Each structure stands twice: as C-alpha cells, then as structure tokens.
Amino acid sequence: MQKKFVLFLVLAMFGLMLNACSYLKFPGVYRIAVQQGNIIDQKKVDQLKMGMSKRQVQFVMGSPLINDAFHEDRWDYIYQVRRGDDTLRNRRFTVYFEDDKLVRHEGDYEPNDVTPEEDTYIEDAEQTEG
Asked: Quick one: pLDDT band at residue 102, thresholds 50, 70, 90?
C-alpha cells in the first residue's frame, strides 16, 4: 500500500514538472512564428473591383478561410501570425456578394482606387502610343 502511494506521488510530481514547462517562459528558448490563414496584403485588395464574380475574387484572394453554409454570399479571410502566446499580426478581410457579384468589402484593408485624373492620364498615354 505504501509503495503504491509513493509511486503515485512520484508520478504526480513528474506530471506537474512537465506541465509547468509549458507555462514558464525560459529565457533563450526559441519560439517559432506560426502563420495561419490566408496572407492578406494591400496588393491583393487593390486588385478587387466591384462586380467581380466569386471565381475572380477567389483567383485574386485565394480560397476563403471561412465559407459559412448559412452565409454563402459572405467570405471571410483571416491572417494571423503568432509566436508562442503572443499574437504578432492579426488581419481580417470580408467580402460580400449578391447574385455572384462582389458588392462590398470590409476589414483591415481599403483598396487604393485610381483617381479620375490618373485614369484620364492613362487613356491619353494609350492614345498617343497607338
């Protein structure tokens, strides 16, 4: 009986020591940065245009991380970088569709639209070349 109690006590102490290592942050221990989700950047968001089809948006942004069966016209793109318990980067972008066409978007990025003056300048340059 006493041997079983001592064995139980030793195993319990060993289990507590192993568990404590995960809660303590030892100096000099390397923690890897883990990326999860879709990489979202400004270049991808700038390529989105209202009226694009779901297939075109998927080509530009990639497959959505969350594709809810109850909200088929909403795609959520989430990107997160973590190192241990610390979140280094957390980005979110959501696109909405109506009749298979992109109608709006929201999130951490806004597209940089071409201003009308720049658009006119591009058309003038094309006419002088041709």
From this structure: very high
25 vs 82, more confident:
82
The beta strands (E) that lie in the chain are given as 33-37, 66-67, 74-83, 86-98, 101-107
Query: So where are the chain's domains?
Result: 34-129
Is the per-residue pLDDT at 93 higher than 70? yes
Asked if 68 contacts 21 with a C-beta cutoff of 8 angstroms, the reply is no
DSSP code at position 105 = E
CATH T-level fold of 34-129: Beta-lactamase Inhibitory Protein; Chain:B, domain 1 (3.30.1450)
Longest CA pairwise span in the chain (Å): 98
pTM of the model: 0.59
Residue 61: helix, strand or coil by DSSP? helix
CB contact at 8 A, 77 and 64:
yes
The DSSP 8-state label assigned to residue 8 in this structure reads: H
